[in-house]
Specification:
Blueprint lengths: L2 H6 L19 H4 L2 E4 L2 H10 L2 E3 L5 E2 L5 E5 L6 E10 L3 E6 L4 E7 L9 E2 L5 E2 H5 L3 E2 L4 E3 L9 E2 L5 E10 L14 E5 L5 E4 L5 H10 L44 H17 L32
Parallel strand pairs: 2-15, 11-12
Antiparallel strand pairs: 1-4, 3-11, 4-10, 5-8, 5-9, 5-13, 6-7, 13-14, 13-15
Length: about 300
């Protein structure tokens, strides 16, 4: 199965409604597939503020996590699920703190060769994909042009659109000739984001901390007391800024080890005060190995 060939002929769309006739008609196993974006309201809240995603040399997971619910697959057929990220435009951006908005800063940098991320359960039968939420929680974003871990490479300060591709596993001899019929593509405008090395909009920082279950060490009040726009947030002053050397208006993010130390310190302090420590030791959704074919040791960082 030539994935690169498939990616060259893919197209965007929130739902796949291919034509019933003609050379581009989709195979019946993919023609009726529908995909629903999970945590849609959360994505919408971030989109209204201008979603930002951290990219690091080592790779950073996305938050919100890209999760979908798929229906109308052929239960007996096998499918491969994969994601890619395409530039929304040919512009580079910068954040204007005086106006709290993103503005154009010139032409985009040279395009980076695109990569795809295979869901680690691929390939699997349609019945398996449809019985539960499909989560791409092991996908990581990096700005390391020399990355050899299979992470998605992005340019910082550029806007991207994540896309989901559902590919039918075709074992026939002439599968390459009909490759354009065996996949469909889904994208959701609410999941667009700007890649950054440190959060620029403080409201994005607050909303991420308020809504990320693995960020409890960075807040002192219950998540129910946080407003969606972050205007009534209550951050622990002992944890701000996360990078002591940074005095910029935005909140920088710590390394994975720093997150562990911060969480451990928070737990110790809670025990001293006689309170129950709110520290997650395992993710809410099932974790998968992040590599396709060659598996790498899974890292344990859950904070975006």
């Amino acid at each position: 199965m030539n994935v690169s060939k498939i990616m060259q002929t893919s197209s965007m769309g929130a739902t796949c409604f291919p034509e019933d006739t003609g050379p581009c008609a989709k195979a019946p196993q993919v023609a009726r597939i529908k995909v629903q974006l999970e945590t849609y309201r959360l994505w919408q809240q971030f989109d209204q503020l201008g979603t930002e995603m951290i990219v690091t040399k080592a790779g950073r997971r996305m938050f919100p996590t890209f999760q979908v619910h798929i229906t109308d697959m052929d239960p007996a057929a096998e499918y491969v699920l994969l994601m890619d990220f395409i530039p929304v435009d040919d512009k580079r951006y910068r954040y204007a703190f005086h106006s709290s908005s993103w503005i154009t800063a010139g032409r985009a940098d040279v395009a980076i060769p695109g990569r795809v991320h295979f869901h680690p359960d691929s390939p699997a039968r349609g019945a398996q994909w449809m019985k539960q939420t499909v989560s791409f929680d092991r996908l990581k974003l990096t700005n390391n042009l020399l990355d050899d871990n299979g992470h998605i490479i992005l340019n910082s300060m550029h806007r991207y659109q994540p896309r989901l591709h559902v590919v039918l596993v075709d074992q026939s001899r002439d599968c390459q000739r009909s490759a354009h019929r065996n996949f469909c593509t889904f994208s959701f405008p609410e999941t667009r984001f700007i890649a950054v090395t440190a959060y620029q909009n403080h409201r994005i920082t607050q909303l991420k901390i308020a809504s990320n279950p693995f960020a409890k060490g960075f807040r002192t009040t219950d998540a129910n007391n946080w407003s969606a726009d972050g205007t009534k947030s209550h951050l622990s002053h002992s944890l701000l800024p996360l990078h002591p050397q940074e005095n910029s208006p935005h909140l920088g993010m710590t390394t994975d080890k720093q997150h562990v130390y911060q969480g451990a310190a928070s737990t110790t302090e809670s025990k001293r005060r006689g309170r129950h420590a709110h520290v997650h030791t395992a993710p809410i959704v099932p974790l998968f190995h992040c590599q396709w074919d060659t598996l790498q040791p899974a890292e344990r960082s859950h904070l975006d």
